[in-house]
Structures are given as C-alpha cells and as structure tokens.
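Ticket opened by: R.M.
Priority: normal
Category: complex prediction / small molecule

The reporter submitted a protein together with zinc ion and asked that the result be attached to this ticket for the collaborator who will pick it up next week. Submitted input follows.
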Amino acid sequence: MKCQGAVLRGVGRDWEVEEITLDPPREGEVLVKMAVAGLCHSDDHFTTGDMVPTPDMVALMEATGAAVPEYFPMLGGHEGAGVVEEVGPGVRSVQPGDHVALSFIAACGVCRWCVSGMTYLCDNGAMMLAKEMVTDGTTRRHVGDEDLTAMAQLGTFAEYAVLAEESVIKIDESIPLDAASLVSCGVTTGWGSGTVGVGTQPGDTVVVVGTGGVGINAVQGARAAGAAAVIAVDPVDFKRDSAKFFGATDTSPSIEEVFPLVQELTNGVMADRVVLTPSVLPPEMVLPALMLTRKGGTCLITGVPKFEVNMVPLLLVDLLQSCKTLKGLIYGGLNPRASMPMLLSMYRNGHLKLDELVTRRYRLDQINEATRDMREGRNIRGIFEFA
Ligand SMILES: [Zn+2]
Ligand SMILES: [Zn+2]
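Result attached by the on-call engineer:
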C-alpha cells in the first residue's frame, strides 16, 4: 500500500513528507493505521547527527566487527498509537480493530533478558535501526526503489505502519489514542526513570535535570514514588513552571544554581537520586550531577549523549569512597507490555497527568516546524494527528 510518511535522508537535512510504500504484513506482523505519533528528542538526534556515528567511529566499529546500521533513508517516529487494520498469519495478541500503543523495542518475550524482566534489554534491540524486520529479516518499507529504515522498527511518522507483533501492545479502547501515544516512549521512559529506574524511596530528595517530554514524567514518577522533595532543573521558564504543575516541589534554572538549594533542603546530605534527562547529555554534566548525589545515592543517565562522547570527567575517588552509583538505562527500566497498560490505568483513575503534556498538535507535513518548536523549548510534547 502507499501512504504519506516523513523521511530523513541524512544528517542536517529537513524531514520530507512523501509517498512511501508498505508491503502487506507477513507471518507474525500487523498493519496499524496510525492515529497519533509523538515527536521525541530522539527523532531529532538523527537530524542533528547526535546518534549517528562519525566516519572515524564507523571505521572503528567495522574493525571490531560491530554491525553498522544503514541509517538513511529513515522513516522517523518511535512513539505512537493506532488501530490494527490487518494481521498476518500466526498473530495472536491482537486482531483488526484493536487499539494499540507501540513499543520502541520489539521485545521478543523469550530471550534471556525478556524472561528476566528486562525487556528493555531484549536481544531484538540490536535491530532497532535495521532496515529488515525482526520477524524474518526481509524489508517491508520503501521509498521509490530504496528500502527504508523505520526508526526503532516502528516508523510512526506515517499514516500506516507495518510492524512485528512484538512492537504492538493492546490497550483498552476507552483510552484516548493521544494518551496511548504518550506512553509509547516519553512517559514510560520518564516515569520509569523517576521511580524504579533511579530507585526512588518514600521521603527521598530527587533532582531531575531537564524537564521536557521525558524529564517531566520523571518528576511525576518521583512524586508518585513518595519523594519528599522533587527539584526540577531546566533553563526554560515555561518548563520549570510546567514541572511545578506536574509535581516538582522546587525548581532551578541550572545544575550549578541548584547546589545551595539541595544543600539547604537536605542539611548538606545532598540528593538521594539524580535523574539526567536533558535534550542532549553533555559529558561535563556528569561530574556536577554526581556531586549533587549523596553518598550511597544513584545518578541515572536517561538523556542521550552524542554518539562520539568517550571521555567524561569523573571524580573516581568520590564515586568509589562515597559508594555512588552512576547508571545508564533505557525505557526507564520498565517493561512496556506491563507498564503501558499500568500507566494508562493510572491515567484513567486520575493519578497520572497525560493530556496536559501535549503542548501543540501538528499535521505530519508540519514536522519541520514541530522540530524547531521542540529545539527551541516551546513544547513539552508535540504530537502529530493523522486524519
Ligand atoms: Zn523517544
Ligand atoms: Zn527478548
């Protein structure tokens, strides 16, 4: 079938909305008519090149035998929700008409990591940026005579998506699809980071650095996990104001300025948990974040650094002697198939704010404008609505 999709042809280029071709779903695959897709900073990491290896790194990866994905042309989008239109043979978890949220990891459910409750580490993650389907290793998405990489095996920036069954999670039909789209990446990642990811306990002091579409949900999560103080750090006034609405007890415009505040709030003990969710993680943020973290505390890296970062200033003796944990995590350490329905039921019961996360709604052909709004800090979340 043919439909409109947003395609990126290289670093530094604009998104181009054009006709793409999707093959019918084969065994274990599902065709979804997209209703809503969210624009996440990780989409922009490919337009800026932050998540694309430099030529030097490609050479290094090739020399070590690592697979180097062919990133472009890329069909963007890894957050979204829609309605199942058609299923291929052997699909059991959904049928046509079902409402689904999409998972940016097509977790297989049977590998060592999945069965250990760490589906975010599923071996299928190695194919997140492959042109081939995780199902049978052949391609389904094309533009002209080229095969498309679909971001995270999804490619939600299109009217339709052909997906592995593992990428779709059935949700209750009473849930609005824009709310379902939000839990597809940003909310789950942020909420998980602020709760189980960083290990928040009742009474903790938690600092969240960067309160955009992911960090704002770390604020909500930390508060729900019982944190006594949740301090939101963001240079943008509007984001600090939003953070207060979503549960922050205090705010600060920068990591430097938050020090005296955390010292005062904790009688010098410092923060139990620090969550780093900036748009792009600068390596020089790690040391001050660890200095904000109390002894025995945890500092969590959720925001994406530039691909080429391989030197990070650290005070190793403090990391050792103060028994601090510096941790990296994707999907907030949650299991999408369990967590998305859980978060959506919290939303339905009024315990999780989702509608208020949407700053602006766009048509897909406004994608470059939406990207500019995100870069300039005007949005908590911008979403695309499909007719
Ligand atoms: Zn994302
Ligand atoms: Zn797995």
